Amino acid sequence: MRSIYMGWLLALLVGVGILCPTTLQATHVRAGEITTRRLPSSGSGSALTYEITLTAYYDVQNGQTAAAAADQVLFCLGDGTQQNVPRLRPIRFLNNATTINIYRFVYTYAGGGVYTISARVINRNDNTRNINNGNSLNVNFFVSTTIFANASLGLNSNPVLLNAPVDSAKIGQRYCHNPAAFDPDGDSLSYRIATPQRAQGEDDVSPAACRSLPVPAYQLPNVIGAPGRTEAGGSPATFTVDPRTGDVCWDAPVEAGQYNYAFVIQEWRQGVLIGEITRDVQVIVLDGPNKRPLIDPIADICAEAGSLITQAIRATDPDGNRILLQGYGGPFNRTPEGTQYAPALLPPAYATLTPAASQPSPATGTFSWQTNCSQLRQDPYQITIKATDQPPRGTAFSLNSYETFGVRLIAPRPQNLTARPLAGVGTSGRAIQLNWSGYSCLPPTPPADQQPSQMIVYRQEGCDTRNPPSCTTGILSGYTRIGSVPLTATTFTDTTNLRRGVSYTYRIVAQFALPTGGESVVSAGVCLSLPLLAPVLTQVTVDSTGPATGAGRGVITVRWSRPIGLNPADGGGPFQYRLLRAEGATSTAFTQLTAVNTGLLPSVVDTVYVDRGVNTAGAVYRYRLEFYTTVNGQLLRQETTEIANSVRLSATGGIRLIELSWAAAVPWSNDNQTHLVYRSRTGPAGPFNLIAQVAVQGPATYRYVDSGADLVASDGNTSGALSLDSSYCYRVQTVGQYADPTIRARTGRLLNYSQIQCASPGDTTRPCAPALTVDQLNCASLAPDAFCNQTSFANTLSWSYPTQVGGQACDARIASYNLYYARYEGDSLRLLANIPAPTTTFVHQNLTTVAGCYEVRAVNNRGLESGPSNRVCKDICPLFALPNLFTPNGDGKNDVFTPLRCPRFVERVEVVIYNRWGVKVYESAGPVLGWNGQTTSGKDLPGGLYYYEVRVVYAGLQRNAAPQLQKGYVQLIRDAIGMR
Question: Fewer CB within 10 Å: N-end or C-end of the chain?
Answer without folding.
Answer: C
